[in-house]
Amino acid sequence: MSSTVCASPEAHAKLEELKAYLSSLESVAVAFSGGVDSTFLLKVAHDTLGPSAIAITARSESFPAREFHEAEDFCQKEGIRHIAVTSDELDIPGFSHNPTNRCYLCKKEFFSEILSEKEKEGFSYLCEGSNMDDEGDYRPGLKAVAELGVKSPLRHAKLYKQEIRDLSHEMGLPTWDKQSFACLSSRFVYGEEITRQKLAMVDKAEQFLLDLGFHQLRVRIHGDLDHGAIARIEVAPEELQKLLDERLPVAEALKSYGFAYVTMDLLGYRTGSMNETLTDAEKA
Q1: Cα end-to-end distance, the chain, whole Å
Q2: Distance, CA of 174 to CA of 145 (rounded, Å)
Q3: How many Å apart are CA 227 and CA 187, to the nearest integer?
Q4: Average pLDDT over residues 47-73
């Protein structure tokens, strides 16, 4: 993205709406992952409410250590109070079987734990960072958000991802051009078992590719370890040639992590590619 990008007047108007909405909530705990959306939301909340806005981050097997440390560093730099809670998705009944509503099961548990922490701290509301683009894909986690009464200020202000990036750029946030991230469990085929070993394999594989300089990527895992797990690598279309050029060291590294086969997805990176096999009935 260009360093001279400016947010549109419409985006600035939505930012003012966001500030007004947060002011009306009086005190908030922000579910903070350190990603583009939650960083922007936390920054605006803290600028608007001061110490009446805090961050709560859930640490888990599906949340890479690098993401937690980035979240921690941001809060320290901005002087925002940061609370970490531990969550283990694999202990949630049914989660490890990776059903199509896996995200709902996880978010229900995840937000319930953060809500308990919010109550102990005496804050009025819990806020999360979904935006208007999240309404266009299969997002069962939003059902948990609605059921638990978690606030979604970015959707309330009708902010889209690109507007959030543009505003973040103007505000000098380090996440303005950060790659989109979703929990590592989203790399698994629905119905295939999620294990700590396979989560660690995916985490190592993605970290290796990030260290090579790839920007937006996913390493999807197919199959079980006994019969030869497949790594399906998605990178941005403009980085497909780079992946081909680096194919030998990439294959060697991923095989050392436990993958039997290493493949490249010719369509490149796209959000929710594991949802492409779901029928409308399954999504409903």
Answers
A1: 36
A2: 27
A3: 18
A4: 94
